[in-house]
Amino acid sequence: MSRLGLIGRCALLALAFLVLAPPHWIAMRLLGRRTTVAPILFHRLFLWLFSVRVTQSGTPPDPGEAALVLSNHVSWLDIVVIGSLRPLSFVAKSEIASWPVINALAALQRTIYIDRQRRGATATVSTAMGHRLAEGELVVLFAEGTTGDGNRLLPFRSALVGAARAALQAEAGRGRVRLQPLAIAYPRRNGLPVVRSERSEIAWYGDMDLAPHLATFVQGGPIDVQVVWGKPITFEATTDRKVATAAAEAEVRAALTGILTGRGEAQPSLGARPAPPGLDLGGSEIATV
């Protein structure tokens, strides 16, 4: 992509933000509307401008159905991809609130922030998530707690899955909450399979500098993204959150194995499938948060 082309695309995104943001804020603040189509339109424009093609399959929640979505996390691009699918909000680290531009986009998405340095933050965020779920919303939690390198799935953390129980407590008449596993992978670029050594060009993790990573993203060419909604897991008042989280992790692992090995959509199961040689989808390595 030429420098002029990049400037033009960024200008279009800025213009779209200026057009979509004011009515979105008015709808949220004055009319009391929780969600509008503005974030979806913005994300879809981004994907179109930068040739990111999204394919989704599986069993997504019905329109208007509340769900706590437990997803793997590969890149900043995950937010744009998932945000383009339907109205929802994310849970993110509190540092994002101080990032220029990104903080404005996160605010439009009604992001719930968690301060991982503050004692008691998990309980506070779980309560906020629970109220969103009780009001019939979709809340996306990147359950690994950090981004991975695209070659392995990190263990899912169960602490914030307690938000499902908070939703049950916030609405006494609600007998269950839907936990929704979601797998996201980037299997092809420029029409060719992305091999193990190339996945770091899409994934953003660890202490990678953002600017060089974005330059690689812009110059790398069209990207194909596959999103698989796994089999939903029912969370009730007596459900063990650790067991439910492990089941969601197994669903995502099975789907990723199917995507990354070229076998198409995997049939999720409660047991993790063995990864073939050269593909590490094990959960033995936990990245630093």
Shape by Cα distribution: globular
Percent of residues in beta strands: 15-25%
DSSP helix fraction: 25-40%
Largest sheet: 9 strands, mixed
Question: What letter string, H or E per element, gives the SSE order?
Answer: HHEEHEHEHEHEEHEEH
Count of DSSP H/I helices:
8
Let me know the average pLDDT.
Answer: 79
The count of β-strands is 9
Instruction: Please state the CA-atom Rg, rounded to the nearest Å.
Output: 19 Å
Alpha carbon gap, first and last residue: 33 Å
What structural category arises from helix and sheet content?
A: alpha/beta
Unreliable runs:
265-280, 283-289
Walk me through this protein's architecture.
This protein is α/β, with parallel strands linked by helices and 289 residues long. 36% of the residues lie in helices and 18% in strands. The chain has helices at residues 3-29, 38-49, 77-83, 102-108, 121-134, 163-170, 210-219, 241-260; strands at 52-58, 67-71, 89-93, 112-114, 138-142, 176-189, 192-193, 223-229, 233-236. Strands 1, 2, 3, 4, 5, 6, 7, 8 and 9 form a nine-stranded mixed sheet that branches. The protein starts with a helix and ends in a 29-residue tail after the last helix. Residues 265-280 and 283-289 have low confidence and may be disordered.
Task: Present the secondary structure layout.
Layout: H1 3-29, H2 38-49, E1 52-58, E2 67-71, H3 77-83, E3 89-93, H4 102-108, E4 112-114, H5 121-134, E5 138-142, H6 163-170, E6 176-189, E7 192-193, H7 210-219, E8 223-229, E9 233-236, H8 241-260
Parallel strand pairs: 1-8, 2-5, 2-6, 3-4, 3-5
Antiparallel strand pairs: 6-7, 6-8, 6-9
